[in-house]
Amino acid sequence: MLVLLAFIIIFHITSAALLFVATIDNAWWVGEDFYADVWRVCTNGTNCTEIGDHFEGYATLQAVQATMILSTTLCCIAFFIFLLQLFRLKQGARFVLTSIIQLLSCLCVMIAAAIYTDRRQDLHDNNPRYYSLTSEGRYGYAFILAWVAFAFTFISGIMYLILRKRK
Protein backbone atom coordinates (compact mmCIF):
# COMPACT_ATOMS: atom_id res chain seq x y z
CA MET A 1 0.00 0.00 0.00
CA LEU A 2 2.88 2.34 0.77
CA VAL A 3 4.33 1.83 -2.72
CA LEU A 4 0.96 2.65 -4.29
CA LEU A 5 0.66 5.77 -2.16
CA ALA A 6 4.18 6.88 -3.15
CA PHE A 7 3.36 6.29 -6.83
CA ILE A 8 0.17 8.36 -6.59
CA ILE A 9 1.98 11.22 -4.86
CA ILE A 10 4.82 11.21 -7.41
CA PHE A 11 2.31 11.04 -10.27
CA HIS A 12 0.39 14.02 -8.88
CA ILE A 13 3.55 16.08 -8.35
CA THR A 14 4.62 15.24 -11.91
CA SER A 15 1.25 16.45 -13.18
CA ALA A 16 1.62 19.72 -11.29
CA ALA A 17 5.18 20.19 -12.59
CA LEU A 18 4.01 19.63 -16.17
CA LEU A 19 1.27 22.21 -15.69
CA PHE A 20 3.71 24.75 -14.25
CA VAL A 21 6.14 24.31 -17.16
CA ALA A 22 3.39 24.43 -19.77
CA THR A 23 1.91 27.57 -18.23
CA ILE A 24 5.14 29.49 -17.71
CA ASP A 25 7.49 28.45 -20.49
CA ASN A 26 7.65 30.37 -23.75
CA ALA A 27 7.35 27.55 -26.28
CA TRP A 28 3.74 27.07 -27.38
CA TRP A 29 4.46 28.09 -30.99
CA VAL A 30 8.04 28.03 -32.23
CA GLY A 31 9.96 28.64 -35.43
CA GLU A 32 13.51 29.25 -36.52
CA ASP A 33 13.71 32.90 -35.45
CA PHE A 34 10.98 33.19 -32.84
CA TYR A 35 9.07 31.51 -30.07
CA ALA A 36 5.70 32.46 -28.64
CA ASP A 37 3.38 31.46 -25.89
CA VAL A 38 0.30 32.93 -24.29
CA TRP A 39 2.31 35.64 -22.53
CA ARG A 40 4.82 37.03 -25.06
CA VAL A 41 6.37 36.72 -28.51
CA CYS A 42 10.19 36.63 -28.71
CA THR A 43 12.25 37.12 -31.84
CA ASN A 44 15.94 36.32 -32.23
CA GLY A 45 15.96 34.86 -28.72
CA THR A 46 16.22 38.26 -27.02
CA ASN A 47 13.58 40.64 -28.39
CA CYS A 48 10.53 39.80 -26.32
CA THR A 49 7.25 41.67 -26.59
CA GLU A 50 4.54 41.18 -24.01
CA ILE A 51 1.19 40.31 -25.53
CA GLY A 52 -1.26 43.03 -24.58
CA ASP A 53 -4.29 44.95 -25.77
CA HIS A 54 -2.55 45.80 -29.05
CA PHE A 55 -2.48 42.12 -29.97
CA GLU A 56 -5.37 40.93 -32.16
CA GLY A 57 -7.14 38.10 -30.36
CA TYR A 58 -5.94 39.15 -26.91
CA ALA A 59 -9.23 38.05 -25.33
CA THR A 60 -8.67 34.54 -26.65
CA LEU A 61 -5.18 34.46 -25.17
CA GLN A 62 -6.55 35.73 -21.87
CA ALA A 63 -8.93 32.78 -21.81
CA VAL A 64 -6.01 30.40 -22.38
CA GLN A 65 -3.96 32.17 -19.69
CA ALA A 66 -6.81 32.05 -17.18
CA THR A 67 -7.63 28.39 -17.72
CA MET A 68 -3.98 27.33 -17.53
CA ILE A 69 -3.49 29.24 -14.28
CA LEU A 70 -6.74 27.82 -12.93
CA SER A 71 -5.69 24.32 -13.91
CA THR A 72 -2.34 24.64 -12.17
CA THR A 73 -3.96 26.09 -9.06
CA LEU A 74 -6.62 23.38 -8.91
CA CYS A 75 -3.97 20.67 -9.30
CA CYS A 76 -2.03 22.08 -6.33
CA ILE A 77 -5.21 22.42 -4.25
CA ALA A 78 -6.14 18.82 -5.08
CA PHE A 79 -2.75 17.65 -3.82
CA PHE A 80 -3.15 19.45 -0.49
CA ILE A 81 -6.71 18.16 -0.10
CA PHE A 82 -5.44 14.65 -0.83
CA LEU A 83 -2.88 14.98 1.94
CA LEU A 84 -5.56 16.25 4.33
CA GLN A 85 -7.96 13.47 3.38
CA LEU A 86 -5.19 10.94 3.80
CA PHE A 87 -5.15 11.70 7.52
CA ARG A 88 -8.81 12.70 8.06
CA LEU A 89 -10.87 10.21 6.05
CA LYS A 90 -12.35 7.15 7.68
CA GLN A 91 -11.02 3.80 6.61
CA GLY A 92 -12.74 2.58 3.43
CA ALA A 93 -13.79 6.06 2.29
CA ARG A 94 -12.96 7.33 -1.20
CA PHE A 95 -11.01 10.45 -2.13
CA VAL A 96 -13.98 11.94 -4.00
CA LEU A 97 -13.27 15.62 -3.28
CA THR A 98 -9.67 15.25 -4.45
CA SER A 99 -10.88 13.47 -7.56
CA ILE A 100 -13.42 16.16 -8.41
CA ILE A 101 -10.87 18.95 -8.06
CA GLN A 102 -8.27 17.05 -10.09
CA LEU A 103 -10.81 16.36 -12.83
CA LEU A 104 -11.70 20.07 -12.87
CA SER A 105 -7.99 20.77 -13.33
CA CYS A 106 -8.00 18.30 -16.20
CA LEU A 107 -10.96 20.06 -17.77
CA CYS A 108 -9.30 23.48 -17.49
CA VAL A 109 -6.07 22.38 -19.17
CA MET A 110 -8.07 20.69 -21.92
CA ILE A 111 -10.05 23.87 -22.52
CA ALA A 112 -6.87 25.98 -22.65
CA ALA A 113 -5.07 23.68 -25.07
CA ALA A 114 -8.18 23.26 -27.22
CA ILE A 115 -8.75 27.02 -27.46
CA TYR A 116 -5.12 27.55 -28.42
CA THR A 117 -5.29 24.75 -30.97
CA ASP A 118 -8.44 26.15 -32.53
CA ARG A 119 -7.46 29.83 -32.53
CA ARG A 120 -3.69 29.65 -33.03
CA GLN A 121 -3.82 30.55 -36.69
CA ASP A 122 -6.16 33.48 -36.05
CA LEU A 123 -3.92 34.74 -33.25
CA HIS A 124 -0.74 34.84 -35.29
CA ASP A 125 -2.09 35.57 -38.78
CA ASN A 126 -4.15 38.61 -37.72
CA ASN A 127 -1.14 40.39 -36.23
CA PRO A 128 0.85 41.86 -39.13
CA ARG A 129 3.82 42.61 -36.91
CA TYR A 130 4.32 38.92 -36.20
CA TYR A 131 2.73 37.31 -39.25
CA SER A 132 5.93 37.01 -41.28
CA LEU A 133 7.60 35.24 -38.38
CA THR A 134 4.84 33.12 -36.91
CA SER A 135 3.25 31.85 -40.10
CA GLU A 136 6.08 29.32 -40.56
CA GLY A 137 6.11 27.65 -37.18
CA ARG A 138 5.08 24.55 -35.31
CA TYR A 139 3.70 23.66 -31.93
CA GLY A 140 6.37 23.80 -29.25
CA TYR A 141 7.11 21.49 -26.38
CA ALA A 142 5.18 23.57 -23.81
CA PHE A 143 2.03 23.10 -25.87
CA ILE A 144 2.68 19.36 -26.04
CA LEU A 145 3.33 19.31 -22.29
CA ALA A 146 -0.09 20.91 -21.78
CA TRP A 147 -1.72 17.97 -23.56
CA VAL A 148 0.43 15.48 -21.63
CA ALA A 149 -0.58 17.25 -18.41
CA PHE A 150 -4.21 16.85 -19.49
CA ALA A 151 -3.72 13.08 -19.73
CA PHE A 152 -1.85 12.93 -16.42
CA THR A 153 -4.45 14.95 -14.52
CA PHE A 154 -7.24 12.87 -16.03
CA ILE A 155 -5.58 9.59 -15.02
CA SER A 156 -4.81 11.01 -11.59
CA GLY A 157 -8.42 12.14 -11.12
CA ILE A 158 -9.70 8.67 -12.02
CA MET A 159 -7.16 7.05 -9.68
CA TYR A 160 -8.40 9.20 -6.79
CA LEU A 161 -12.00 8.27 -7.62
CA ILE A 162 -11.18 4.57 -7.47
CA LEU A 163 -8.78 4.75 -4.51
CA ARG A 164 -10.06 3.83 -1.05
CA LYS A 165 -8.32 4.65 2.19
CA ARG A 166 -6.74 1.60 3.79
CA LYS A 167 -4.64 0.96 6.84
UniProtKB/TrEMBL annotation:
Membrane topology type: Multi-pass membrane protein
Membrane-spanning parts: 63-83, 95-116, 139-163
Subcellular location: Apical cell membrane; Cytoplasm, Perinuclear region; Golgi apparatus membrane; Membrane raft
Keywords for this protein: Cell membrane, Cytoplasm, Golgi apparatus, Membrane, Nucleus, Signal, Transmembrane, Transmembrane helix
Keyword DNA repair on entry: no
Keyword Cell membrane: yes
Family recorded in the similarity comment: Belongs to the PMP-22/EMP/MP20 family.
GO molecular function: integrin binding; protein kinase binding
Species classification: Eukaryota, Metazoa, Chordata, Craniata, Vertebrata
Top-level taxonomic group: Eukaryota
GO BP, sorted A to Z: actin filament organization; actin-mediated cell contraction; apoptotic process; bleb assembly; blood vessel endothelial cell migration; cell-matrix adhesion; early endosome to late endosome transport; embryo implantation
Function per UniProt: Functions as a key regulator of cell membrane composition by regulating proteins surface expression. Also, plays a role in regulation of processes including cell migration, cell proliferation, cell contraction and cell adhesion.
Secretion signal span: 1-16
Oligomeric and partner information: Interacts with PTK2; regulates PTK2 activation and localization. Interacts with ITGB3; regulates the levels of the heterodimer ITGA5-ITGB3 integrin surface expression. Interacts with P2RX7 (via C-terminus). Interacts with ITGB1; the interaction may be direct or indirect and ITGB1 has a heterodimer form.
A single Gene Ontology CC term: nucleus
Protein name: Epithelial membrane protein 2
Organism: Ictidomys tridecemlineatus
